[in-house]
Automatic annotation (TrEMBL):
GO molecular function annotation: kinase activity
Tagged with keyword Kinase: yes
Pfam family for this entry, one: APH
Domain spans labelled Aminoglycoside phosphotransferase: 18-244
Name used for this protein in its record: Ser/Thr protein kinase RdoA involved in Cpx stress response, MazF antagonist
Length: 360
């Protein structure tokens, strides 16, 4: 199957070595080595990305804009096929794209130092800043309503009423717990109504494995651009908080290991504010801590809804997998909420360091 795809790129069977890479929950990825060249091959999950051509169009528009306005910026655009396409379609296996492998780069799966969190935040902040004059509305919503928390809440609410009855019963306590956080959804509605809070070009999946690092541990560029689409900055900053603050990730079953670390929080804020803080409106700067609540809560109710809906979206490796993931994220949210005063102080410090102010 892979070999017929490689042919479209002019890569011959005999010379190529293809090895699967462990990556996210949605797309499949392989490393391809051929004639001394390395590539990353990715299959788009077209049950999730229903219009793969829109994904390709977004990446092309962003690539063209950056090439024209910021030619020195390292943006990893897909390799073209022999017939100059961004993507290959094969009726049995779906849609594939190939990216050049950036020499000397590596990815990490776990954030183990505040420096790494800082480097990543700087990368995502720089990407957003360089695109702040690009009209985000030119881009397609590659997953419509992807980070629409209000809709996610309704989906969760439906699943908790009409989903798998046995599972709903099992999850009763966390469903009730999740309902107690409705204020996070209400605040999202005020964000949507506030015209000074712009929809920007956002990455929407800022976990650490989507940053390439060089040998010295400096951030090189960002990858996995399928969810690059219009959104609010809280999506990118929030997902960094969700995935960098705790030493234990969403898969952890021992919840006593979930904690939020002050120095990692400062590193995220430092990296993002120093690259993107100037672009943010004061109204947006007021939402930095809210970003974490917003994204962690959204992930919790997405996992919980999926549990009630028989794991239709995320899949599951064991019976209670999505129940455990949802419980985990609700605990992470609590740990973050407990730090409100300390973290507001850190945000104030970092803004001050950059001579920036908020409304409040
Ligand atoms: C999915 O596929 P992956 O792991 O990059 C999901 C994200 C979630 C993440 C949770 C398109 O990302 O929104 O945060 O799982 N992406 C999509 O692990 O739904
Ligand atoms: Mg992804």
């Amino acid at each position: 199957m892979i070999h017929s795809i490689l042919k479209a790129y002019g890569i011959a069977d005999e010379q190529s070595v293809v090895e699967p890479l462990v990556s996210g929950l949605i797309n499949k990825t392989w490393k391809v080595t051929s004639a001394g060249q390395d590539y990353i091959l990715q299959r788009i999950n077209h049950f999730v990305f229903k219009k793969p051509y829109e994904v390709a169009t977004n990446i092309r528009l962003v690539d063209e804009y950056l090439a024209q306005h910021h030619p020195d910026y390292l943006f990893v655009a897909p390799v073209k096929t022999l017939s100059n396409e961004d993507m290959v379609y094969n009726k049995d296996d779906g849609y594939f794209r190939m990216f050049p492998y950036i020499k000397g780069s590596h990815t990490i799966n776990v954030v183990s130092s505040p420096d790494q969190a800082y480097e990543a935040a700087l990368q995502f902040g720089t990407f957003a800043r360089l695109l702040s004059n690009f009209d985000a509305e030119k881009l397609h919503d590659t997953i419509p309503d992807f980070h629409n928390l209000t809709l996610r809440y309704y989906q969760f609410d439906d699943s908790s009423k009409y989903g798998n009855a046995k599972r709903i019963k099992r999850a009763k306590a966390i469903i009730e717990d999740a309902r107690k956080h409705l204020h996070i959804v209400e605040q999202f509605e005020t964000v949507r109504l506030n015209k000074r809070i712009k929809r920007r070009v956002m990455h929407h999946d800022t976990k650490i494995s989507n940053v390439l690092f060089d040998e010295k541990g400096k951030g090189l560029c960002i990858i996995d651009l399928d969810t690059v689409m219009p959104g609010y900055f809280i999506s990118d900053v929030g997902d960094m908080m969700r995935t960098y603050l705790s030493p234990a990730n969403e898969e952890e079953t021992d919840f006593s290991k979930i904690e939020v670390r002050d120095d990692f929080f400062r590193a995220i804020v430092h990296g993002y504010v120093s690259s993107m803080g100037n672009e943010l409106m004061p109204e947006e700067r007021d939402l930095i801590l809210y970003s974490g609540w917003f994204l962690i809560y959204m992930q919790a109710i997405r996992f919980l809804a999926d549990y009630c809906n028989n794991d239709a979206y995320y899949g599951a490796k064991y019976e209670d997998h999505n129940f455990v993931r949802a419980s985990n994220q609700l605990i992470l949210l609590k740990r973050l909420e407990e730090k409100t005063d300390v973290f507001e102080k850190i945000i104030a410090d970092e803004l001050k360091r950059n001579n920036l102010f908020t409304l409040s």
